[in-house]
Amino acid sequence: MSNTEQIFFDHRFVWKYKWAIVILPILFLTPSNFIKANKISYGNIKDNQCPVECDCLGNVVDCINLQLIGAPSGLPPWTEILGLKGNNIASLEPDILLHLTKLKELDLSGNKFGDDFRIILSEGTHLQMLKVNKNQLTQVPDMFFVKNITHLALAHNSITDINGTALLNLQRLQNLDLSGNKISVIRNGSFLAPNCLTHLNLNKNQIKVIENGSLDNLTSLEELRLNKNHLTQLKDLFTNLKKLRILEINRNELQTIQGLSLRGLKKFKRITFKKK
User: Fold this and answer.
1) Which residues of the chain are in CATH 3.80.10.10 domains?
2) 80-112 burial, b for 16+ CB within 10 Å, e for fewer?
3) Which residues of 236-270 are buried (b: 16+ CB within 10 A; e: fewer)?
4) Taking a C-beta distance cutoff of 8 angstroms, is the pair 237, 210 a contact?
5) Domain 56-136 belongs to what topology?
6) What are 169-201's pLDDT values in tens digits?
7) How many Å apart are CA 109 and CA 154, to the nearest integer?
8) What is the tens place of the pLDDT at every residue in 241-255?
9) How far apart (Å, rounded) are the C-alpha atoms in residues 269 and 152?
């Protein structure tokens, strides 16, 4: 065989071999296998789709003001921020959020959650912010199911008392918003142990009395807002709040702030006091 014939033969052999590589997998892909593979692919796409009722952008799933009575099924597992505010939801199905292991923020404001409020999350979920504003709560719910949150908003409910036991589990909580409720007394036991709370908003309640010692465990507190309450006196309540920087006590029933002791508060910067 000449060199030219040898080269021609080698090229034909290579091309036949290449076609065999392409054709053989196709021959072995039976109709049933093809359907199965197609289902798996479609299933993965379906699991990652935005629910029909909602709007999605990036890692945000927005399902607000839709008159929903429950969370949509099939919430995508990549959800980090979930908005369900402005609906008619009174409870959530136990397993509806279990697969959302990346969830960081959950907004349930403007619904119908009552004192039996519960959500169930996977142990691997590290929810950081929970908003349950404008619902039907009359007390601070037990928060054992969201131990890692840093921001909790329970504003504009009908809460009458701060349940220190409920807050005891939230050892990483930094920001607590209880504004617009019906709290009349801050009692000893409202904050049972030293904690990480840095911002506390108690504006627009009905607070008349802050019991001595009731704030002593707020050793990390930096900002305290007590605007639009019914306080008549403030005396020796803040001496243990060594990190307090800002105190707002506008529009209460205080005639004077004489006797208010801020001694030892080395980081204190501002107090705002306006009469009604």
Assistant:
1) 56-136, 144-275
2) ebbbbbbbebebbeeebbebbeebbbbbbbbbe
3) ebbebbeebebbbbbbbebeeeeebeeeebeebee
4) yes
5) 3.80.10
6) 899 999 999 999 999 999 999 998 888 999 999
7) 9
8) 999 999 999 999 987
9) 25
- Give the torsion through C-alpha atoms of 49, 54, 60, 64, to 10 deg: -160
Question: How far, in Å, CA of 137 to CA of 192, rounded?
Answer: 21
Superfamily of domain 144-275: Ribonuclease Inhibitor (3.80.10.10)
What DSSP string runs through 90-143? S---TTSSTT-TT--EEE--SS---TT------TT----EEE--SS--SSPPP-
Evaluated on CA atoms 172, 170, 125, 108, the torsion sign reads negative
Beta-bridge partners for 209: 185
Report CA-CA distances (Å) from 111 to 6, 42, 107, 195: 81, 34, 10, 30
pLDDT of res. 80: 98
